[in-house]
């Protein structure tokens, strides 16, 4: 089995990923992952929408499983098989903000207890790290930002949504006036010292 990262948005497939997709006889993925890879899927490929993530371990050995972003960043990299990286939302966010990866800690709030994710983010900021937070559609940015009020003066929160898409949006706010998402597909970068370059 191959687990292939299709990138976080259009045009973010690596050459290795394109090769694996174009030679796949059987593909599995979410509707968004399939759409990101569609231009490279051969006409003879059998395409399957994943509707039961718990059964992915039982897929045939020649299956190619598409994972949005990078499989090792809250993706499907836990599956047994060859992992082919994709360009992740982390990479694109840090490129947009000109922030070195070595300054950042990752906090996953997607599908997990949001208050616990906020506590983790506070702890990382207290260590002097910026925090890249992977959100889910039910994540409330305002509630999250309130955790930083009075604790970390001058902190900024940068919301990055639909990275790589034509309507990509990157907007920075503060704990007092946090940016609000317009779409379900977003991540946050929390940092006391970040300033986005023009």
Overall description:
The protein is α/β, with parallel strands linked by helices and 198 residues long. It has two domains: 2-87, 3-Layer(aba) Sandwich (Cobalt-precorrin-4 Transmethylase, domain 1), CATH 3.40.1010; 90-191, Methyltransferase, Cobalt-precorrin-4 Transmethylase, Domain 2, CATH 3.30.950.10. 22% of the residues lie in helices and 24% in strands. The protein is built from five helices and ten strands; from the N terminus they run βαβαβββαβαβαβββ. It has a five-stranded parallel beta sheet, with helices on one face. Strands 6-7-10-8-9 form a five-stranded mixed beta sheet, with helices on both faces. α2 links the parallel β2 and β3. It is elongated. 41% of the residues are buried.
In short:
By secondary structure, the protein is an alpha/beta fold. It is built from five helices and ten strands, in the order βαβαβββαβαβαβββ.
């Amino acid at each position: 089995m191959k687990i292939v990262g299709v990138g976080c948005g259009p045009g973010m497939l690596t050459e290795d990923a394109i090769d694996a997709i174009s030679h796949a006889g059987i593909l599995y993925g979410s509707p968004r992952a399939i759409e990101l890879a569609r231009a490279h899927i051969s006409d003879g490929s059998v395409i399957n929408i994943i509707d039961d993530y718990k059964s992915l371990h039982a897929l045939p050995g020649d299956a190619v499983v598409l994972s949005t972003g990078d499989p090792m960043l809250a993706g499907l990299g836990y599956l047994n098989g060859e992992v082919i990286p994709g360009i992740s939302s982390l990479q694109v966010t840090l490129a947009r903000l000109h922030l070195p990866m070595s300054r950042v800690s990752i906090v996953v709030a997607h599908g997990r207890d949001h208050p616990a994710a906020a506590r983790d983010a506070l702890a990382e900021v207290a260590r002097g790290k910026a925090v890249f937070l992977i959100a889910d559609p039910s994540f409330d940015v305002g509630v999250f930002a309130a955790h930083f009020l009075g604790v970390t003066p001058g902190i900024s929160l940068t919301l990055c949504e639909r990275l790589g898409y034509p309507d990509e949006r990157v907007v920075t706010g503060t704990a007092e006036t946090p940016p609000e998402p317009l779409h379900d597909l977003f991540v946050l970068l929390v940092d006391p010292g970040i300033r986005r370059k023009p």
